[in-house]
Design brief:
The chain has 3 domains: 105 residues, no CATH class; 195 residues, Rossmann fold (3-Layer(aba) Sandwich), CATH 3.40.50; 53 residues, no CATH class. The strands form 2 sheets. A 6-stranded parallel beta sheet has the order 1-10-7-4-2-3, sandwiched between helices. It has a 4-stranded mixed beta sheet with strand order 8-5-6-9. The protein contains 22 helices and 10 strands. It is an alpha/beta fold. Strand 5 and strand 6 form a beta hairpin. The chain binds iron/sulfur cluster. Iron/sulfur cluster binds next to helix 14.
Amino acid sequence: MATQPIDDFCAKIKPSTKSAVGSASKETTAARKRIFEAAYPEAGKTDALRGIANAIKGQDLAANVRRAAESLERNGVKVLFAADAMEAKEQIAEIFKAEGVKNAVKVKSMTTEEIGLNSFLQSLGTDIVETDLGELIIQIEGEGPSHIVKPAMHRKRDDIAASFERHHVADSYDDNPQHITLNARKYLRKKFLAADAVITGANYVLAKEGAIALITNEGNARFSMAGAKIHIAIAGFEKVIPSAKELAVFLNLLARSATGQHSTVYTDFVSGPGSAKNSPQKMYFIFLDNGRSDILGSEFAEILKCMRCGACMNRCPVFRLISGHAYRATYPGPLGIVLSPLLAGERFCEYADLPKACTLCGACAEVCPAKIPLPDLVLKMRDLAKTKHCKVPNDINFAPFSFLATRPKLWRALVPLNRLANFLPLGAVKFGPLGRWLKTRTLPSFRGGLFRKWFKNG
Ligand code: SF4
């Protein structure tokens, strides 16, 4: 199947998107660095912690999932397993039907983005509203997240204020950041109170305790629980860790990596339905597979150790330029390059161009708190795309370059002539793979000369 080249999306990126994503990702990366240096000034301590996180996630996942399911059931949670996105959505729709749920609120969850839950429930007539500010901003415009932690990273505040006015979240245009937040709060208050059910993800599932940890900065998870009578949590099974003891390792890494905070403002633990009147009386937990079993048994298993912090995206020079939507999938950036084609299953080739959106600079692996060898996985993904004979429409044929680069004598003879390339009318090439490739790239002029000579002369 033909793929949709990432270049087509890049050509349409607005300058305001580039500047918003570029500055936000750079600031977060700098904050991440500062906070780790303050927390662990001793050389190698952060790295050691990352190694421990990797090792914990590498423990027997199947056994931990079994244990988590038993513990959750023991705590009164109805546990379900969904093989794929459709099964998970149908399970949720059935619960809603059985419980008469008409209004629901949602707490930010990339797993629900992965399965396309909102549009599915809306098509069945459910009013489902995102309660995280960033998610609300993109939901009212019908957009998907451009970043896994900061879903509205690509939006500027004047544009958000206009959108709030247009969609009646605010009475009038007001781009004061504090007022934007207060308008969202006022709008959401009614939704919280009207909600029959709350849907959340789970940052971690504690196998021994049978509890989930929800990590937020806005307190919306806790607030949602106060009104709704039904709580449905859904997460990929890789979110299971052995117990609360191991959670400490992840809590020390997650917020610092994600937002440059020592800790998020709220860390909520939910271990079953509540006994108090103002808490959900029923709780369901759905373990989502959706391709994860296959990944677990493959050479890409390390990617399941991801803790969804977004640090690799913030650090990635390509993501900073093209923003998350260019990756056309729920998970963008270095994480998405590896995960999106794998989760796509039979539609693997639709994402076969993604591994090319990587310079292999290795910056993502340096910051990944789970110590995932992302560049290695990107290279493996390139190989897999080749093995599957995926067709990438604007793939430039590098065979001529490869021919020259592997023949040193010929290369040396031809390099001094490279200045002649400046006279080629490349700007006039508008069609075909080369035209599409050049649409988003400006080639610098060749200066001529030999690198070896420059290097020798210092
Ligand atoms: S791959 Fe690593 S850096 Fe990227 S989101 Fe996952 S845990 Fe964070």
